[in-house]
Design brief:
By secondary structure, the protein is α/β, with parallel strands linked by helices. Helix content is 35%, strand content 23%. The chain starts with a helix and ends in a 5-residue tail after the last helix.
Length: 167
């Protein structure tokens, strides 16, 4: 009986009630695994260099349709937080440079795309499915995660991230 009442209440709340719920899965607060990879231009990026910023770390591949679909929303989120202590690191999972560069010609991004050539970073982060995204707080701890496609520019999602930004 309680289950039926709960389902009825959820149905009556509809999308507005669902939107009020947190979207991102809270992290355990553990220190983020190390991340040190090169981008397509050969520049090395280390997560530790972004300390003091909230960092969205997204594991993706061009063969993953949901990954490609969510990339523009990650870029919109990045642009909306431009000038704030926020960064995005997209980690491509073991694909040839030419394939990634072809995708980036179609979908220009304003954040680094790092190459995880042997999938060691994905293993360290336990990114078993794609897309897998982790929100690392300014203190270097994993604050949120999300597996699957998401519109990162939606207000409930961007609000959760904005609340982590140092003031």
């Amino acid at each position: 009986m309680r289950l039926r009442a709960a389902l009825l209440a959820l149905a009556l709340l509809g999308p507005a009630g669902a939107a009020a719920q947190p979207v991102l899965k809270p992290g355990d607060g553990a220190r983020a695994p190390a991340l040190k990879l090169k981008d397509l231009e050969g520049r090395e990026h280390a997560l530790e260099a972004y300390r003091g910023k909230v960092v969205l770390v997204n594991f993706w591949a061009t063969w993953c349709a949901p990954c490609k679909e969510e990339m523009p929303s990650i870029e919109r989120l990045r642009r909306s937080l431009e000038g704030r202590p926020f960064a995005v690191l997209a980690v491509n999972l073991a694909e040839p440079d030419a394939r990634v560069q072809a995708f980036l010609r179609q979908v220009p991004l304003g954040f680094p795309v790092l190459m995880d050539r042997d999938a060691a970073a994905a293993k360290a982060w336990k990114a078993r499915m794609l897309p897998a995204t982790f929100i690392v707080g300014a203190d270097g701890r994993v604050r949120y995660s999300y597996i699957g496609e998401l519109d990162w520019s939606r207000e409930p999602v961007s609000k959760q991230i904005t609340e982590l930004l140092p003031r």
